[in-house]
Automatic annotation (TrEMBL):
GO MF term list: sodium:proton antiporter activity
Protein source organism: Microbacterium tenebrionis
Gene that specifies this protein: nhaA
Pfam families: Na_H_antiport_1
Phylogenetic lineage: Bacteria, Bacillati, Actinomycetota, Actinomycetes, Micrococcales
Family, as annotated: Belongs to the NhaA Na(+)/H(+) (TC 2.A.33) antiporter family.
Keyword Transmembrane helix: yes
Protein name in the entry: Na(+)/H(+) antiporter NhaA
Length: 388
């Protein structure tokens, strides 16, 4: 059991599992299995007395994924307070690169799919899947300098923050301020309880935190803000010490269960039987904006940031290292899939093609990153061997 959990905490295996789940979802959606699987995903489960009645697919994207965002937010909290982003100096260079990795994909997308029917999909190619990116780095990047991994980690974390802001601001609807206020009160209570954990009655406090966390999720869902934001709020509010323990305990469940299940459901789309010319501009916009936009944005803005921040010293990252980081940044998957579902929630046909665009764009970036990262790592190994 401990070996399997350690495997799920590794960087390589969860990325492979996520990719396999997405491939399985796409496969079953395009076989005779489509109808029975779709019937399960579209069946509804209600909570009596609350007015909440969600399909199984929405329970996964609104419910289970909130746990993923809870873990992400705990990691963000750590990096912002003790890690790679805990000072302005540390955060400046990856922040500039992240800005390029968001702005350029948006421009690429809007140039291709800026029409009235598809323009709302511009946030989709802005995300980086940190699990996938670090997984590729772990598999192909042996020998790369630590500066590359630190830079990519900070970049992906900042991308997560931007994606979270997009979800909270752009996809809120019919805000209910009373429910939002109750959610905020619940978050405060949750944070207070977490700071009592080192004291007695730990089991009771943990149980109380779980109940409060569920109530916060419920109030956020009823407030009109996407329910995954509840996980973000709770993850940022929890005290540091229990946060680290919670991350360690939840990581195998998130990597081995929640993310693959979400990837399966999100990728469960029918490939349209049309010629390439008949595909939606959203498909092409995302499929190009993820690999091309991310590479250009991260490389150019990252080069500017590194040159400005080097203060006359040789920069820690070369232009080729930044290209490698840019290809890794183009792997969208998890958050991009969620954004695709949200951006085209009222247009199923465009939503499905946007999801296909995420899968194609991420796979292109995945292939490019494997080639470029392995080549760059080999070069660094040769330089290290020659100098030793």
């Amino acid at each position: 059991m401990s070996d399997s959990r350690n495997l799920l905490r590794s960087q390589q295996f969860p990325a492979v599992l996520l990719l396999a789940a997405a491939a399985l979802g796409l496969l079953l959606a395009n076989l005779p299995t489509h109808a029975p699987v779709a019937a399960v995903l579209e069946s509804h489960i209600a909570i009596p007395g609350t007015g909440i009645d969600l399909s199984v697919a929405h329970w996964i994207s609104d419910g289970l994924l909130a746990i993923f965002f809870f873990v992400v937010a705990m990691e963000l909290q750590y990096e912002l307070t003790r890690g790679e982003l805990n000072s302005f100096r540390k955060a400046l260079q990856p922040a500039i690169a992240a800005a390029g990795g968001v702005l350029v994909p948006i421009i690429v997308y809007l140039l291709i799919a800026g029409g009235e029917a598809t323009a709302s999909g511009w946030p989709i190619p802005t995300a980086t899947d940190i699990a996938f990116a670090l997984g590729v780095l772990a598999v192909f990047g042996k020998g790369l300098p630590a500066a590359v991994r630190v830079f990519l980690l900070a970049l992906a974390i900042l991308d997560d923050i931007i994606g979270i802001v997009f979800i909270a601001v752009l996809f809120a609807h019919d805000l209910n301020w009373l429910h939002l206020l109750l959610a905020v009160v619940g978050v405060v209570v949750f944070g207070f309880l977490s700071r009592m954990l080192p004291e007695r009655n730990t089991g009771f406090i943990v149980a109380a935190m779980i109940v409060v966390g569920i109530l916060v999720w419920l109030f956020v869902l009823l407030s009109g803000i996407h329910a995954t934001i509840a996980g973000v709020m709770l993850g940022l509010a929890i005290a540091q010490s229990p946060s680290m323990r919670a991350r360690y305990a939840l990581e195998p469940w998130v990597n081995g269960g929640i993310l693959p299940i979400f990837a399966f459901v999100a990728a469960f789309v029918v490939i349209p039987a049309v010629s390439p010319a008949e595909l939606s501009p959203a498909f092409f916009g995302i499929a190009l904006a993820l690999p091309v936009g991310k590479i250009i944005g991260i490389t150019v803005f990252g080069w500017i940031a590194v040159r400005v921040g080097s203060h006359g010293q040789p920069p820690a990252l070369t232009i080729t290292d930044l290209v490698a980081a840019g290809t890794l940044g183009g792997i969208g998957f998890t958050v991009s899939l969620l954004l695709a579902n949200l951006a085209f929630a009222d247009d199923a046909a465009t939503r499905d093609q946007a999801i296909l665009g995420v899968l194609v764009g991420s796979l292109i970036a995945l292939a490019l990153s494997g080639i470029i990262v392995s080549s760059r790592a080999a070069w660094h190994r040769r330089v290290t061997a020659a100098s030793s």
